[in-house]
Amino acid sequence: MGSVVFENLTDEARSRLPRYPMPVLHVGQLAADSSLQGRGIGSLLLKCAAERAIEASETVGCFAIEPIADSDQAFDWYLGRGFSSLNPGSMRLYQGIETLKATVEKA
């Protein structure tokens, strides 16, 4: 668990959020061995992390899940799954808990 400082958010995110640090579930790295990529393992890992973030939001309060991409390819992978850039020039992304709930329910 951690938090994101309001001033570090994009203008778009700031327009929708209160002006205090937002609690988030940090995800340092999700990865599948290169020999196993393309088989949906990353998506399963992300779903598991999303489910845990949803559980955390119900007990300790959590606004979003915040993965940290370690490459441009990983950053684009998260963007393709509905995540938004946390702040310009950063490899940090986020997706709100309400969006995660809707996504997990569809899967």
What is the string of SSEs from the N terminus onward?
A: EHEHEHEEH
CATH superfamily: Gcn5-related N-acetyltransferase (GNAT)
Structural class: alpha+beta
Mean of residue pLDDT values: 83
> Whole-Å distance between the termini?
25 Å
The profile of the biggest β sheet is:
5 strands, mixed
Shape: globular
CATH architecture: 3-Layer(aba) Sandwich
Tally of alpha and pi helices: 4
Q: What's the arrangement of strands in the largest beta sheet? A: 1-2-3-5-4
Low-confidence stretches: none
Gyration radius from CA atoms, angstroms: 14 Å
Describe the structure.
The protein has one domain (2-106): Gcn5-related N-acetyltransferase (GNAT) (Aminopeptidase), CATH 3.40.630.30. With 107 residues, it is of the alpha+beta class. The chain is globular. It has helices at 11-14, 41-59, 72-79, 97-106, and strands spanning 2-4, 22-27, 64-67, 84-85, 93-96. The protein has a five-stranded mixed sheet with strand order 1-2-3-5-4. The mean pLDDT is 83.
